[in-house]
Amino acid sequence: AQKVTQAQTEISVVEKEDVTLDCVYETRDTTYYLFWYKQPPSGELVFLIRRNSFDEQNEISGRYSWNFQKSTSSFNFTITASQVVDSAVYFCALRGYGGATNKLIFGTGTLLAVQP
Amino acid sequence: DAGITQSPRYKITETGRQVTLMCHQTWSHSYMFWYRQDLGHGLRLIYYSAAADITDKGEVPDGYVVSRSKTENFPLTLESATRSQTSVYFCASSEWGQNSPLHFGNGTRLTVT
Q: Is A85 helix (H, G, I), strand (E, B) or coil?
């Protein structure tokens, strides 16, 4: 069975603070894909990044960075120098490779509130 | 314009009624998905489809029916709506390939009274 756990339900930070959103996953597939999505207060779901199980390189995109560690089954997301516009719900998701696991399973999300 | 469109955006219905939520995509994506979003549960997969006439159950399929006679359409039907089906429903599509990100519609907020 596949599972994604986002243990942090809500996080509140003050603008310019760094914040890390945790994501832990479970899968029996050797090939799988991990994703992060953002859901701002307006409600739409915005794709942020994908990572395949064979690529453990960390990635940085502006103020965003992602740390993928297969050894701990984690795919954490860090926002550096947070801004009010980063306030949103962030979802981590997992998609397996097999027929039964080829569907995107989401975690329960982390609500990030960035205070001015 | 290309994209994925859900209709209606808002729907109020009564317990026991049948209601159909529509989803249409113009990308010719192979995969389509239906999720429901509830507080504390995140996004849960209801049904998905790998191609026309191929559908499969997700995590919470009970009480829902889907069909996919055409690649671009993936309607979701609640055969006899219950209050527990009050939720926000998202349709999504993706290209063939497990590394393809899902593209989501804007959601349908359904209230069952």
A: helix
